[in-house]
Amino acid sequence: MTLLNDTNDPALKSWVASANEVGCDFPIQNLPFGVFRRAGSDEAYRGGVAIGDQILDLSAAVAGGLLSSAAAKACEEPTLNTLMSLGRPAWSDLRAQLSAVLREGGRQETGAACLVPMADAEMTVPAKIGDYTDFYSSINHATNVGKMFRPDNPLLPNYKYVPIAYHGRSSSIRISGTPTKRPMGQLKAPDAEMPVFAACKRLDYETELGVYVGPGTALGTTVPLEKAEDHIFGMCILNDWSSRDIQTWEYQPLGPFLAKNFSSTISPWVVTLEALAPYRQEVYSRPDSDPAPLPYLTSKDHEASGGLDIRLDVAVATEAMRKNGLAPQTIGTPEFKNMYWTIFQMFTHHTSNGCDFNPGDFYGTGTISGTGADECGSILEVCKGGKAPIDFPGGETRTFLEDGDEVIMRAWCEAESKPRIGFGDCRSLITPANG
Ligand code: MN
């Protein structure tokens, strides 16, 4: 099932003029949810919807009589967890109301008074994220990284059967714009006898998408693949910051720990599955020599529409580049459609042992990488583990990230005769380690 209705009509226009500009991330077909307040104010954080370069303040819209559903009222809260808990019929109804209010010929007179310019707003993490899991669903990333860590055995035999993941740490998830402090940790150079405790020297980004869970599940219950999308509210960009030197020394035998949980940066707007409906497509086509997924992870419907055509761009701006007015340099443009596992398979697999979910729980897809050198989702892959430095304008080079570097991720969907929708930015500046 794809969730396509008249809110996705590419011909729709908004009375908010900036929403109709070519290349705008937030046209009326998108309508992503976030949590904001006026920057520098002590206002309560509350729900809003991005439209062009404006935010529709949902509390003001309820107070002004533009919206009246339980779903709209849930957006008066400082997190979207209640909205997420309500489920797709409530979300669809609210989306239809929002589209009617914001489209040309809609409720401009009352609606205009409920707009806050994005430039005047500060965003926050839009949900109380109880639990966070990070998957590893790009076979290209898994193979590229596996080659570095285990040259003779890059892809472990479980990869084509199991959507691999580890349990992450929700406490350190931060909103775009929050700096990321270089972590301290145990590092051991390959030729050193002993580890040292020092600032990470191999700091990396991971270009991912994040998924917000809607209605929860009870302990002991499983969610079949065909029902997985009922539990998915929407998606954002995720930078799963990674310290490769801490990781190398600590990851065996129990997996990632302090190499990953010092910071994870998310973009503020949650793009709903309904907004993404025009970009549902066939799942990644496995080579004939690969095993078919086990029966609980596959179905005809899912094969036809479990994939998502989302493009990404990761760029870096060094401190010197910013000082000299140079634009960030793109160093990777991966595509989500190449992922080996879909967001639905990830969810169904996660519940397959009876593990329960709460509204607002979150999971990352894993670093998104393609097969091409320009489609890498981490600098580890771009620079081949530090062996192939990248040149930046102004004469600087990088193998891993330096203090003062800003990493900027963008994601969007675009295809002929479909509405272009974007996710906005996910950005964070690296600041020096303690001491
Ligand atoms: Mn990751």
Write structural notes for this entry.
The protein is of the alpha+beta class and 435 residues long. The chain folds into two domains: 6-124, SH3 type barrels (Roll), CATH 2.30.30; 132-431, Fumarylacetoacetate hydrolase, domain 2 (Alpha-Beta Complex). The chain has twelve helices and 26 strands. The chain has helices at residues 58-63, 70-74, 81-86, 88-102, 108-111, 139-149, 244-250, 273-276, 300-305, 319-323, 343-351, 379-382, and strands spanning 33-38, 46-51, 54-57, 115-117, 121-124, 132-135, 165-167, 173-175, 180-181, 184-187, 196-199, 203-204, 207-213, 232-239, 242-243, 264-266, 271-272, 280-281, 307-308, 311-317, 329-332, 362-364, 390-391, 397-398, 406-413, 421-431. The strands form seven sheets. Strands 6, 7, 8, 13, 14, 16, 17 and 22 form an eight-stranded mixed beta sheet that branches. It is globular, with a radius of gyration of 21 Å. The chain starts with 32 loop residues before the first strand and ends with a strand. Residues 134, 206, 208, 240, 364, 366-367 line the site of manganese (II) ion (MN).
